[in-house]
Write a structure and sequence with these properties.
By secondary structure, this protein is an alpha/beta fold. The protein has two domains: 126 residues, Rhodanese-like domain (Oxidized Rhodanese, domain 1), CATH 3.40.250; 213 residues, 3-Layer(aba) Sandwich (Rossmann fold). 50% of the residues lie in helices and 12% in strands. It has 15 helices and twelve strands. The strands form three sheets. A five-stranded parallel sheet has the order 1-5-4-2-3, with helices on one face. Helix 5 packs across helix 8, helix 11 runs antiparallel to helix 12 and helix 12 crosses helix 13. The longest helix is centred in the C-terminal third of the chain and has 22 residues. The relative contact order is 0.11.
């Protein structure tokens, strides 16, 4: 006799040995519970065909065909992905709503003898939990924001702070984007979906210690194609911030290092600059695209900083509360200069007391 799947809630996830996402690969790629492995009971094509059959022919025919594929796929997962799992292994399985796909998988696993369970509400319940976490978590943390114009070494200073044991949150790493018009990841890796970014952000926020300050880089509301949740954006706008003052030449040298990879794609760089149409004169934009195609990055980035990024930064800075701003002069952005800056920030108890 088949066992009825045990239903568990999100707060019981840690009690299981593995988390199995039974949805299709496309659903999993869009977003999934962190740490879940994708073992689909229907692949993308099978799911589409079953849905079409359901609409055009009827529920019985769709379920009959779907059952064949589900049984075949579960059997393959048991024979391959689960072949080395011991008898005491406890997997937690979920699908979109905690319905037939995960239910079928759990029934099979329990027949074998594993103490499998089904996540109540499935991914849909998890997504609702993520939204609630994004609303609640940011206000409970002690934020310290690193601010400054393009090329002032904010990301590298975050890394130097982390190396000294400080608590940091790297939003650009989670978003896989630097936040600027040229900020695509150099290896061509796509950004996560908004839901994927939200999931990664919740996991990062939950790992932070509320009793310690959290250092983060100043970001606009959007980082490339993904958007910061309202509660986090508001918390960062209201937080104490350190404004880095760095010589222009040092900033330009850093930008040339960080964006040197664009030199391997001059046509792509010129095309990307088209996004600035309407923000810069046609003459200026034509000059920049010409420099991009010729690989004249030093001239291009110097003007981009002076005529585009720095004015944007100054306008944003004018909207910030001056009472929350503290200036730190950084003369060089080499390893020694960043190490000194990190040490100075962490040693400034007076700054911490003043700003909090």
């Amino acid at each position: 006799m088949a066992h009825k799947p045990d239903l568990v809630t999100l707060d019981q996830i840690d009690a299981f040995d593995a988390l199995v996402d039974a949805r299709s690969p496309a659903e999993y790629a869009h977003d999934h519970v962190p740490g879940a492995v994708n073992l689909p009971v229907l692949d993308d094509d099978e799911r589409r065909l079953v849905g079409t059959l359901y609409k055009q022919v009827g529920a019985f025919e769709a379920r009959r065909l779907g059952a064949v594929w589900v049984a075949r796929n579960i059997a393959r997962h048991v024979a391959q992905a689960m072949q080395d799992k011991p008898a005491h292994w406890r997997p937690l399985v979920y699908c979109w709503r905690g319905g037939q796909r995960s239910g079928s998988f759990v029934l099979w696993l329990r027949q074998i003898g594993w103490a499998a369970a089904q996540l109540q509400g499935g991914y849909k319940a998890y997504r609702g939990w993520v939204v609630r976490q994004l609303q609640a978590l940011p206000s409970g943390l002690q934020w310290r924001v690193l601010d400054g114009p393009t090329g002032s070494g904010k990301t590298r200073l975050l890394q130097a702070l982390a190396a000294r044991g400080a608590q940091v949150l790297d939003l650009e790493a989670l978003a896989r984007h630097r936040g600027s018009v040229l900020g695509a990841w150099p290896d061509g890796a796509p950004q996560p979906s908004q839901k994927g970014f939200d999931s990664a952000l919740v996991a990062a926020l939950r790992g932070l210690d509320a009793a310690r300050p959290v250092w983060v880089e100043a970001e606009s509301r959007k980082i490339g194609a993904v958007q910061l949740p309202e509660a986090l954006h508001h918390a960062l706008q209201a937080a104490p911030r350190v404004v880095l003052e760095v010589p222009f030449d040092a900033r330009l040298a850093l930008v040339l290092q960080d964006y040197a990879w664009w030199g391997r794609d001059p046509q792509g760089l010129a095309q990307r600059l088209s996004a600035l149409r309407g923000l810069q004169s046609n003459e200026t934009l034509a000059r920049w695209q010409h420099w991009a195609r010729q690989g004249r990055l030093a001239e291009l980035f110097a003007e981009l900083m002076a005529l585009h990024y720095d004015p944007l930064y100054r306008r944003a800075a004018m909207r910030a509360d001056p009472a929350l701003r503290h200036t730190l002069t950084v003369s060089t952005l080499d390893a020694a200069g960043l190490e000194d800056a990190a040490a100075a920030l962490l040693a400034e108890d007076a700054f911490h007391n003043e700003m909090t």
